[in-house]
Target: Fatty-acid amide hydrolase 2-like protein
Amino acid sequence: MQLFTRGCDFHALMSNGGPKINLILEMLKAVIGLSEHTIPALLFASVAKFDPNFDESNFELLEKLKKKFYNMLGSNGILLFPSGRNVAPNLAETYVDGYSFIYTCFFNALGVPVTQCPLGINKDGLPLGVQVVGAPYNDHLTLAVAKELENAFGGWVPPCQIKF
Model:
């Protein structure tokens, strides 16, 4: 099921068909790293739950955005997009940085294929990467472009030597 469909209850989706989660309890658990959900997802569910116009207004806006994005990419276009704001953020940073999720959730909401492509490491030894984004049903294209980029830039590099 896509994230945004008319009448979709994001809060209900978070429970995988079980009883709805307690958003306040989950937020407290998330702050100490015990929730199965991210803080941005919980914030999103909270806004969606308490704003009666949230679903309808966002659905219409998203449909317009999808049309523009699909037209921009055409049948064989590719968009290269950063993987995040920072190179390899500390895991704890991703929980408190309210904007880091936008680098991936935007494309999830649009329903387009994205392939994360490793490009090697920077001068500090941290991994570099880029997202390869395509039009709907062009997974084969994002994978092919990612493979070429990975070959050209060095691809995945092990974080350290493993000795047996």
User: Anything to note?
Assistant: Residues 59-157 form one domain. The chain has two domains: 1-56, 59-157.
